[in-house]
Each structure stands twice: as structure tokens, then as C-alpha cells.
Amino acid sequence: MTISFKGVHFPKDVILHAVFFYLRYGVSYRGLEDIMAERGVDLDHATLNRWVGKYAEMVAEAARYRKRAADRSWRMDETYVKVKSEWVYLYRAIDKFGKTLDFMLSKRRSKAAATKIFARALEVNGMLKGFGCPILIEILRRKYLNTIIEQDHRFIKRRIRPMLGFKSFASAASALAGIELVNMIRKGQFTLGLSPFQQFAQQAG
């Protein structure tokens, strides 16, 4: 999947650098506006907001099927994220070594949402083909097994905290998808030997 930057008024690298920096370091849009200005790029925080809202999720979606193979022992859990004044649920799945398998933001904490993230995690990790799963799945409910994913939630929460909240579900979903992607890059789930930004830009095609 190649992401189109047709019609934009800034070079692709400038856009991707700004989006990556926001996702990786959790600065505010106004703070990032100042950082970009110091580098000779004059733009406003509203433009940065639009870039993250448009491109973060697109780059993350392109990366879903490109990450390196994960272990077949999984941990799944959900954590809370505030959008406007309401709590929504970020479902996440990692393997026993902490590699991210998949993630999904949901307005509800329900069986349907849990089923959806589980089915999609199977698909994007190559375990669901056609209408069936070629391997036996055993589901265990053991609290101590989820310690590793509860710790992994902390990276996401640290990135969210300086962002001063999300104004809509769509903007939250896009930013969180991008944060999950840079987290996967940090974990070494893509092309080794490239810088974190180069790995991020590589997903945009």
C-alpha cells in the first residue's frame, strides 16, 4: 500500500517527520509548531493536527501486515482512554515476548469488540485464512499472564499524557494507531538497520 501525498503543499518528508515526531515524543501541536519553526518549516498547529489525523492511521494500517512474525502465545487486554469527557477502550494484543500483534479503539467494552480484535489479530498475523483457522487455539484466563501487557500499556499512556486530550473518537483512533506503530518500531518489529524515522517512512511507501 502506497499512501498518496498528491495535492499537499509541503514535501512528503516534512509531513512524515512532523507526524513521526508528534507520535514518538508526545509533544503538543503548539510545541511541535515551535520545533518545526526552529527547523525552518513555517506551519500552524491546525495543519499539524490535520496531518496526524489523516496520515498516522494510514501509515499504521499499511504497516499491519508488514511486521515481523510473532510468537503464538498471546496476551490480550484493554485499557482506558479519555475522548472529550468520556472513556473509551483501547483493545491490545501482544505476544509473550512483548511484540505487538494488533490494537483497536472501541467506544464500548463488549463481547463483540473483544471478538473483533481477536479475529483481526488472527488475520493480520497470518493465522486466519478464508473462513477458518488452521491451528488449535486454547484460551486461558489467568491474571498473572497479563502482567506483561499491563506494563506495555504504560508506553502508550506516557505518549498520550502530554497530548492534552482527544477532541473526537476519529482523531483518537488515528493518533493511537500511529503511537502503536512507533511503539512497534521501538520493539524492532520492522526493518532492522534503519533509523526509527526511516522505518516509519518506509511504511508510507
From TrEMBL:
Matching Pfam families: DDE_Tnp_IS240
Cited SUPFAM superfamilies: Ribonuclease H-like, Ribosome inactivating proteins (RIP)
What are the UniProt keywords, alphabetically? DNA recombination, DNA-binding, Transposition
This protein's record includes keyword Lipid metabolism: no
> Which InterPro entries does its entry note?
DDE_dom, IS_Transposase, Ribosome-inact_prot_sf, RNaseH-like_sf, Transpos_IS6
Domain DDE intervals: 73-124, 141-189
Q: Which NCBIfam families match?
A: transpos_IS6
Q: What is this protein called?
A: IS6 family transposase
Which organism was this protein described from? Ruegeria haliotis
